[in-house]
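Crash report, auto-generated. Payload:
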Amino acid sequence: MKLLTCPVNGTRPLSEFIFGGEYREAPNQNTCTDAEWAAYVHNRHGAPGDKKEWWYHSPSGTWFIAERNTLTDKVSRTYLVSPNLISPKSVVSDNTEKEAAVKGEGQ
Amino acid sequence: MPLRLLKYALKSEHPAPRFFKSHETPKKSYDVVIIGGGGHGLAAAYYLAKDHGITNVAVLEKGYIGGGNTGRNTAIVRSNYLTPEGVNFYDASVKIYEGLSEELDLNLFYSTRGHFTLAHTESAMRTMRWRAEVNKHVGVESRVVGPDEIAKACPQLDMSCSGQAPILGALFHAPGSIARHDGVAWGYARGADRYGAEIFQNTEVLGIDVKNGKVCGVKTNKGYIETKQVLSAVAGFTPRITEMVELETPIVIHPLQACVTEPMKPWLNSILVSGSLHVYVSQSSRGELVMGSSLDPYEVHQTRSTLDFVEGLTSHMLDMFPFLSNVKIVRQWGGMADMTPDFAPIMGKTPIEGFYIDAGWGTWGFKATPISGKTMAQTIANDSAPDLIHTFRLSRFEDYELTGEKGAASVGH
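Recovered output after restart:
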C-alpha cells in the first residue's frame, strides 16, 4: 500500500495518513464485568484477515474507516463514519453513494 | 579445529557432519511439542533435555531453522532495560550468552563492544539517568556519559548530528554485544538434537486440539501428533497460533525492517543507538554496518521491504556519519514483530492447560534467546513459571500490572 483514499480528499500518499488501530465496539461499561473490560482495553484481534480500521488524514484532520486485509495489505474501501454511528453496519448503508465514489481507488 | 578441517582436505570424500538429523515423519506422540524452530523454541528444546531430562520432544518449524526473526534481527545483546524485573531477566540472558560459544561448542562471534544509547534532548537524558540508576541498583554496568567520552569512543561521529540534533550525552552499557544470530539457532538445534529432540523443518501446524480446557494434540501437514504440552514460540505468527486455541492476547503484528551496507574495514567498535534519530547501528565481524530503525507504522503480516525505510534510515545515518554518503546499501529485509502494549514479552502458562506461550518478543527477542529457552523449559517441566518471568505472564493485562519497558525496548518514541 503506497496510496490511500481519504473519503474527503481523494487518493493521497500514505505518508499523509496515520494508522489508528482496529475499529472495535466497546462493551457497555455499566454492565460488563471487570474481565470483559480488561480484555477490551488490552486484547486485539491480531490474526491476519479483513479488518475495519481507523485511519487519519493528517493534513485535513479527517478520521475515517478503511477496510483492509492485513495479510495482503489491500484496501477494499474507505468511508466516513456518520455522526450518529452506532455500528459499522449502519455506516455501510448510510454511505452507499460515497462508497461507490471511493471504491476501487487507492488499492 | 584446523586439524579437523585438515582431515577433510586429505580425503577424497567430504562427509561433513550434519548439525542435526533430518526427520521427515513425526512419531505418533511426544511429551512436548514446540511450535517454532527459531532460537527461542530450539533453546527451550535444548534446556528441556539438559536441565530437566525431557528428551521426547518435537520441534516443528514451518520454514527452515532460524529463518524467521532469529535470522532477521540486528543481533544486539544488552540488558540496560528500564524496570528492575526486565533488567534482571535480560542480565541473566547476557550472562548465559557470554559462555554460550563454549557451551554449544560453536563460535557465535560473540563480541562485547559497549553500547551507547545517545540522548539528543534533556528528556532523553532524564530517561538515561533513570535507566542507569535502575541498572546500577540491579548490578548491571550502565552509566551516563558526556559528549567527550562518546567522541573518544567513536571519533567518526558528528556530535552535532549535522546541527539537527546535538548529542548531549548517552547511556553507556559496557556489556552490550553482538553475536552471529543464525549460529545461535544452529547451536541450540545441534545441542537439542544430540540430546534426542527431533527437529522437523517444512512442518506447519494446522490446528491444535483442546478438549475440556486441556491440550491433547497438534494437527500438522505431516500428520497428527498426540501431546499434552505445547509451547508456542513463533514470534510474528503468534496470533495465528493463539487463534487455534481461541486465546485472546494484546499482540499486534508490525513489520520491522533492517539493512546492511557493503563491507568496510573495521572502524566502528561500539554499538550506537539513537532514539531521536530512530537508528541503531553496529559493524559486524565481516565489516558490514548492520542498521535498523523503528517499527513500520501500521499492522501488516508481511516481511516486505520498503524504500521509505531505507530513505529514512540512511538520511539519519548521514546526520550521524556524513562520510558514509558514498557507501552502498547491499541488502534489506523485514521481519514480523509481535508487539505488546508495554513492550515486554508474554511468557508462561495460559488458561489452557498444557498450552504455554513464549511471545510478544516484538523488537527485543534475540537478546533473550538463552534465558527465554531456559525459563520456558522450567515452566513446561514444572508446569509452573519461575519467579524470573512472573512479571511477563499473560494475566498481567487482566490484572492491570503491565511491565512498562517502552523507554528501553525500542527506538522511535
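Post-recovery validation: Chain B has two domains: 24-72+182-251+342-409, 112-177+252-339.
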